[in-house]
């Protein structure tokens, strides 16, 4: 099965050794972005993957393209143009000190990227799966409108469409995101998360307002059923994360269809690098659906891959099926 995604690739600059921004004299560099993380993760599992994106026409853009090729992601539709690369800076938390992120992505080459209307059908033909996120939708109105058109074209061509809602308050307000992302969902088969999705009551208030993120599944399930029915979504996948500290969390995965919901056992993880772990969950679920596994196995693998990514530096994990299962099942000091 052939997978293609559309999104921005950023340079991540991280303070070393848990230093604060005020202390740091240097930064460790990585490349990442929600859509790229998913493409590389699926490539590690043997899926044919491709990206639609834009990077600067300079050495940094060249390095990104080389990096994608290194991980067997097709770069035919990664264009290069004048402009700058989007950046984000991270300060790794420790003990009671939380992680911090600073974004510097305005006016990036990607944010000025607009394909002609007839290009997207040509690009999507020959692929089976199209993946998007709410991050790209929130960057500006032109990208939002392009994304809406791309999803409709994908459905017309018969592609399976997945969407990670991925709300970012730094990009747009919650109510705008809820309205715009809900418009897209009528053409989506798999959605990650259930906010921001519009589910208004008779008085126009959203039924989910005030719902605790760690609510029991019995409380969440009626809303999921309504989302399935209203938007004709085949799958809804999400994770509940209990935070003990910035270095130890508990994860539990959930996957629902119109008539069934399954959940994993909770799993405790020690954290080397939390960034990109949600994308790793997406990778696991997408791969499981591609393999036509049953719901329980799909969501379990999603949590396994998410757990594995917590122990990998950088934004993405490029690992085989054997690596992921061996990591979960092994209690040995060294695998020899």
UniProtKB/TrEMBL annotation:
Tagged with keyword Kinase:
yes
Does the keyword Kinase belong to this entry?
Answer: yes
GO MF term list: kinase activity
Q: Which InterPro entries match?
A: Carb_kinase_PfkB-like, PfkB_dom, Ribokinase-like
For the Carbohydrate kinase PfkB domain, which residue ranges apply? Answer: 5-196
Q: Which top-rank group of organisms is this from?
A: Bacteria
Keywords, sorted A to Z: Kinase, Transferase
One family from Pfam that matches here is: PfkB
The UniProt similarity line reads: Belongs to the carbohydrate kinase PfkB family.
Protein name as annotated: Sugar kinase
